Give the backbone structure.
Amino acid sequence: MAAHASWSARLSELGVTLPPVVPPLAAYQPAVRTGNLVYTAGQLPMVDGELTVRGKVSEGAEGIVAPDEAKAAARQAALNALAAVDDLVGLDAIVRVVKVVGFVASADGFSGQPAVVNGASELLGEIFGDAGKHARSAVGVNELPLGAPVEVELIVEVQP
């Protein structure tokens, strides 16, 4: 897909609505700009001030977040990151997604972090097409804030 005339219009075409910006849980800003780059803080899968799911990610154990559920949570976290960018500079200022970093609270032995973080990457591809192709890290961690299963941060290039 070529550069879209309006990313906001693209969201409407996809039936996707950006949520309100999640208020910071500590001493940080949801997004900051330096030059032509916007860096988001790590975003959790919050909806209306609540986590959509809690726990560590693995397969088949009771009390564990399933990989597909964590993938959906990564998508929500990416939407929250886009909301932070939109609030700072406007969604239509985005030129391209440069990098995605996804952290996955992983139970012992779980190594499917890349598939979980695909929830964020696939969403960005749906919205931005070629401009959504990015570098990425998918990192397994022991714990995340509030017991979240995933946390996603973005670096995006914006218009000068």
